Amino acid sequence: MLALHYVSVPTWLGRSHKAEEVSPQTTRRYDGEQAQAIAQMLVKGLRRAFARLQPKAGRKSAWSDYMSGCNREQASFGARAEGRFEVALMLAVVHHLTVTDGVPLPDVFDLIASLVTKGIIVEYVPPEDPMFQKLIRNKEHLIPRLGQAQFEAGFAPWFIEQRRLALPQSGRVMYQLAKRS
Predict the structure, then answer these.
(1) How many of the other CB atoms lie within 10 Å of CB of 159?
(2) What is the pTM of this model?
(3) Quick one: pLDDT band at residue 26, thresholds 50, 70, 90?
(4) Domain at 77-179, CATH from 3.40.190.10, 3.40.50.150, 3.30.450.20, 2.120.10.30
(5) Domain boundaries, the chain
(6) Are 130 and 146 in contact (CB under 8 A)?
(7) How many CA atoms lie within 13 A of 181 on its CB side?
(8) pLDDT by residue (tens digit) across 85-126?
């Protein structure tokens, strides 16, 4: 026999009710036929609610375009931003992209090279940095790919090093890089 314990979410989460008042032991039980009717009623109500949320036919909005064409009507951010910036300032950014988001170093510098016309100022954060250690927790296998030599090899195809400033207290290094022609 199918049984249904029906408690609405507002009732269940409401402040005026204690948890034991809306537990399955104290809520009303329905037999199989009633349970099926209630479930059908709830599903029908949800379908109507979702139908009301759909954009109206012919009505234009950013969301309706997104839903209908997966935003293909508008150029991506990368395409719109390409070559629009003279210089990018990237302080303590690259290691977040490589560790947190898993973006390879060459891909990071390739993207930045497509956005800037002159160069970047970028900070290298060594894996020994205390904040870096928090970020890389449980991802220690990435450390061999994130050394200073790998960092420099990552930007070399797109940028030429103009100046380097080591920050001895932290082990971090600031680079001024010019975009290759």
Answers:
(1) 22
(2) 0.58
(3) low
(4) 3.40.50.150
(5) 4-54, 77-179
(6) no
(7) 0
(8) 999 999 988 988 888 888 889 999 999 999 999 999 999 999
